[in-house]
Amino acid sequence: VAVLGLGRIGSAVADLLASGACAPHLEATIAGALVRSADGRRATTPFPICTEPLAIFDARPDVVIEVLGGLEPARTVVLEALSRGIPVVTANKTLIATYGDELFAAATRFGTPLRCEAAVVAGVPFLGTFAARPLAASVDRVTAILNGTSNFVLSRVDGGVAFEEALADARRLGYAEPDPSKDVDGSDAAEKLAILVRHFARLSIRPSGIAAESIENVGPDEMRAARALGGRIKPVAVAEWSSPDLGCFAGPAFLPEDDLLGGLGGVLNGVRLERRGSAAIHLIGPGAGPEVTARAVLDDVVEALGGRQQVGVGALPRASVGPPASQGYFVTLRATSLPDAVDVADLLAAHGVWIRRWDALQAHPDGELRAFLTFPCLPDELLMALRALAAASACAATSRPIVEARRD
Amino acid sequence: VAVLGLGRIGSAVADLLASGACAPHLEATIAGALVRSADGRRATTPFPICTEPLAIFDARPDVVIEVLGGLEPARTVVLEALSRGIPVVTANKTLIATYGDELFAAATRFGTPLRCEAAVVAGVPFLGTFAARPLAASVDRVTAILNGTSNFVLSRVDGGVAFEEALADARRLGYAEPDPSKDVDGSDAAEKLAILVRHFARLSIRPSGIAAESIENVGPDEMRAARALGGRIKPVAVAEWSSPDLGCFAGPAFLPEDDLLGGLGGVLNGVRLERRGSAAIHLIGPGAGPEVTARAVLDDVVEALGGRQQVGVGALPRASVGPPASQGYFVTLRATSLPDAVDVADLLAAHGVWIRRWDALQAHPDGELRAFLTFPCLPDELLMALRALAAASACAATSRPIVEARRD
In sequence order, which ranges of A28-92 are alpha helices (DSSP H)? Predict the structure, then answer.
């Protein structure tokens, strides 16, 4: 195999192959590796190193493992491999989310396997499974926790830790990248969600078209208010579709605490697949980490060498993305002195926003804090209602969508 | 396709095919069906019906779907199909659990796909997935809720309903068979566990060799005591292995309430896969029901026609089965008047059983009830200790194994 990239994942792939853990299912050696800068590594690796992307083919690999991350030179080398009939395994979510159409079309055209199980919830194999099983895959909603770092951070915030401190913990424990902005701002989850939309909705979308919200302004007081209302704030990604509409969201949302995803702590990831009239499927496990990802990559190599293509994920119709249907909102109000609940309810109702449940008034360093859940309403209705409230009473409002499993 | 059996599942397969839900992935028609008794059905079905098992091959099917249940004539027809090179899809857990060695050996010998995804947690495809992915499949413990009926019944008991009433509810809602004894006594779960042992431990065992316990003597008072100690009684199946030892159990066990399987209610099924040093994987979804099973069967047909064998599940070494390593026990004591906790603890400690946590003394129609959790101990130590306790104080004791996820 040729390994593109010898970062944390590429090194874990090399270690796992050297450890013999793959025998007898996979007897593979590294024929060569592509790195951005060779530094002194040529002397320390037992396989050839190159820095010129297309020179990797001089090693005549049977499979190309792409764990470079980013768009180029990953895209160019993957396309070249596919055109040469060399199966490709990638863990690169950005690449598949961005160039999935082009890459899977090339894989189909050249009849070459292209697999990306490690790109989404690396510890739970399911993309290839559902791609090969059309009835199981005919779902119309996916709800998921796709970013372990942000789940860890919000779980710590739920434990009373401030956001910045929780993020520092994640960095110290090696969960967060030196630059964790893609984890925090929802764009990592949006890329993975675009891959899930490709696999399950069979639609092609730009990840940047998904409304993504940062988790950075979720604090312990908002989390306490969510608990008081029977839920938790979780970093979720949601996609639902019903021809021709596709609604997506990635960001902090209010999940009931008895929800399997709502109860998922630490760095765990989870995916819920729903089809009307049927009980939901939940797939839960580790989402990332060098060893977990390396194992998924090498299992993909086994499958690719067995000739297994990921069926039916070639070029797909482009879709535009709106928001998912509202299931209501979790709203937190903060002010020096909050208006009476009755007055708030009256004002919101005038804008079409109806309150389902209040929690108790809490003291807050800067005044008072209260939270409530609304019935489903349009995002614009909520926006106008909260603006009117702010104008009338000088209170600051934060809102999170409620995300619940369907109860059929 | 030929369909062996036109009961609830066979009829659902026929309905699903007729509905067009499988297009464009599978364009199949029923070439013939085998039934035990034709009755008046020859006139009502749009396909030929036969009652002579091997006559089904006169229909020249491309795939054989076996949903007869039971051992014969299922085994004979499946072997005949495999020997003729006709792929077989079965939902028959008893058949695979009992004759898995012979059937998969035949499938391998004749190079004919044999698939059984619907036999275990029909709503979540995973057997084929993990069979094709050796690194993901290298786990050393499986913990599962494999029988929806018994999960439903114990969930109702947890809600305060007596066992018999809960079972009657399950029958009325169509979850339980007219004869639910295999659901209740753990033998259905043991058969499914034997299939999981085959797939993950790569060992062949007789399902009757698995220690199975009935859920029928679990009542609301025991469930309340479990809750007081932070857990629930769930109908679980456990297998763990470490060469050359294999430990298995199927029956009611004490699970922590924050455990993903411990919190699983209704008729849901779930599987936890554990490997030391890695976070567990949980797969959760509907376990049975005619439509869920029919969908899994037809997805298997799609995969079988794509030439996909379930890799590596041919004839396997036979293993003998012991109990899993103890994680401690949940013990309930009932007596007209219970001895002091200190005296109970003393007596048990003399037999090597140490108490981890007591709940509070409860009144009970026949006297008093108390429960406690023990530290891990040998089954024989617990047995002798509880016998000594019964002799000393005339109290009745019930014990359930504690089953917890490893905390690595």
Answer: 74-83
Six-digit token pair at B227? 């809750």
Task: State percent of chain B over pLDDT 70.
Answer: 97
Using CA atoms, how far residue B200 sits from A17, A80, B250, B273, in Å, is 21, 37, 17, 9
Residue B210 CB neighbour total at 10 angstroms: 27
Could A292 and B286 be called an inter-chain contact, meaning their C-beta atoms sit closer than 8 Å? no
Name the residue in chain B with its Cα closest to that of A132. B303
pTM of the entire predicted model: 0.95
What mean pLDDT do residues B146-152 have? 96
Contact B284 A284 (CB under 8 A): yes
Question: Among candidates B320, B122, B323, B119, which has minimal Cα distance to B213?
Answer: B323
Which tens digit of pLDDT belongs to each residue from B318-353? 888 999 999 999 999 999 888 888 999 999 999 999
Percent of chain A, pLDDT > 70? 97
Chain A interface with B: residues with Cβ < 8 Å? 16, 21-22, 25-26, 123-126, 128-130, 132-136, 138, 258, 260, 263, 266-268, 278-286, 291-292, 295-296, 298-299, 302-303, 306, 308, 311-312
Q: What share of chain A is helix, strand, coil (3-state, %, to 5)?
A: 40, 20, 40
Give yes or no for a contact between A259 and A114, defined as CB atoms under 8 angstroms apart: no
What are the Cα distances from residue B408, in Å, to B38, B139, B275, B279, B280? 57, 14, 10, 8, 10
Which of these, B70, B119, B406, B399, lies nearest to B249 by C-alpha position?
Answer: B399
What pLDDT digit, counting tens, does each position of A237-280 carry?
Answer: 999 999 879 999 999 999 999 899 999 999 999 999 999 989 99
Burial B255-290 (b: 16+ CB within 10 A, else e): bbeebbbbbbeebbbbbbbbbeebbbbbbbbbbbbb
